[in-house]
Amino acid sequence: MKIALIGYGKMGHAIEEIAVKKGHEIVLKINIDNVEEMMPENLQRADVAIEFTGPESAVENLEKCINAGVPVVSGSTGWLNKWEDIKKLCNDRGGSLVYASNYSIGVNLFFELNSYLSSLMKEYGEYDVVMEEIHHTQKKDAPSGTAITLAEQILQNVKRKKNWVNEQSNSKEDLVIISDRVDPAPGTHKVKYTSAIDDIEIIHTAHNRIGFAGGAVKAAEFVVGKKGIFNMKDVLGLG
Ligand SMILES: NC(=O)C1=CN([C@@H]2O[C@H](COP(=O)(O)OP(=O)(O)OC[C@H]3O[C@@H](n4cnc5c(N)ncnc54)[C@H](OP(=O)(O)O)[C@@H]3O)[C@@H](O)[C@H]2O)C=CC1
Ligand SMILES: O=C(O)C1=N[C@H](C(=O)O)C[C@H](O)C1
C-alpha cells in the first residue's frame, strides 16, 4: 500500500515506523513547511492518506484529500464542529473517510466498557460521574477527543447528566471532564462513578503511541477499495 502522511510530527513518525515494518511505502510526507506539495497529483500517487496534524489544519487537509479522490484516515482531534461539512463533502464526492478520536484497540475496547457501564448506571441516581484525561503538555486541544467520545457515550445513557463541561462545576447536571497536562503522558482516560457508599472507576492508560499508530495503519488497510464514512468499530468489526 502506498501511503501519504499528512502531518509528520509525533504520530506521523510512529505511523511511518509501523507502516514500513508492515511492508507499506510512504510516498508523500507533508508537514507545515511543505504544505504546498499537497496538490492533487501528489496525493493521487498514494492509495490512502493518513492525516494527524491538529485542530487548525485538519479540515482543510481532509477537504484536499477528499477532493483529490484519495481515501483518508484522520486522527486529528479538536475539529468536530465541522464534522457535518466534511461528512457532506465526502458523501457528495463519493469519497472514503475513516475517523476515530482514538485508534488504539485498547481504547476502542474501553469505549465498549464505558458504554456498558453507563447503561448500568442509568438506573442508579445515587452515583455521580466525573471524568479525567491526562496528556503531554504539547497537546493543543482540551478536553481530548477521546474524552469527548467517552462523555457522549455517558450522556446517551445517564440522563441525569445534560452536557459535559471542561471545568469544575457545582451543577449535578454537568458531566465534569478534568484535563491535566503532564509530560510525557501519551494519554490516560478515567471515568469514575462515586456514591456515599463506594466508587467504581475505569481507567485506560496508554504507555506509548504504538497503539494509536498501529490502529491508524489498520484503518488505512481497511479503507482502501471501500467508499463511505467509517469508524474504528467498522475497522475492528465491533459491530
Ligand atoms: N486519533 C488518535 O488515535 C490520536 C489522535 N491524535 C491527534 O493527532 C493530532 C496530531 O498529534 P501529534 O502527532 O501528537 O502532534 P504533533 O504536533 O507532534 O504533529 C503534528 C504535525 O502536523 C504538522 N502540521 C501542522 N499544520 C499542518 C498542516 N497544515 N499541514 C501539514 N502538517 C501540518 C505539524 O508541523 P509543526 O510541528 O511544524 O507545526 C506537526 O509536525 C492531534 O490533533 C492529536 O490530538 C494523537 C494521537 C492519537
Ligand atoms: O494528542 C494526543 O496525544 C492524543 N490525542 C487523542 C485525543 O485527543 O483523544 C488520542 C490520544 O489520547 C492521544
Automatic annotation (TrEMBL):
SUPFAM superfamilies: Glyceraldehyde-3-phosphate dehydrogenase-like, C-terminal domain (SSF55347), NAD(P)-binding Rossmann-fold domains (SSF51735). It holds the Pfam family DapB_C. It comes from Segetibacter aerophilus. Transmembrane segments: none annotated. Its EC number is 1.17.1.8. One of its GO terms (molecular function) is 4-hydroxy-tetrahydrodipicolinate reductase. The keyword NADP applies. This is 4-hydroxy-tetrahydrodipicolinate reductase. GO terms for cellular component: cytosol. GO terms for biological process: diaminopimelate biosynthetic process; lysine biosynthetic process via diaminopimelate. It is an enzyme of class 1 (oxidoreductase). Pathway: Amino-acid biosynthesis; L-lysine biosynthesis via DAP pathway; (S)-tetrahydrodipicolinate from L-aspartate: step 4/4. It catalyses: (S)-2,3,4,5-tetrahydrodipicolinate + NADP(+) + H2O = (2S,4S)-4-hydroxy-2,3,4,5-tetrahydrodipicolinate + NADPH + H(+); (S)-2,3,4,5-tetrahydrodipicolinate + NAD(+) + H2O = (2S,4S)-4-hydroxy-2,3,4,5-tetrahydrodipicolinate + NADH + H(+). Residues 106-236 form the Dihydrodipicolinate reductase C-terminal domain. Residues 1-103 form the Dihydrodipicolinate reductase N-terminal domain. The lineage of its organism: Bacteria, Pseudomonadati, Bacteroidota, Chitinophagia, Chitinophagales. Belongs to the DapB family.
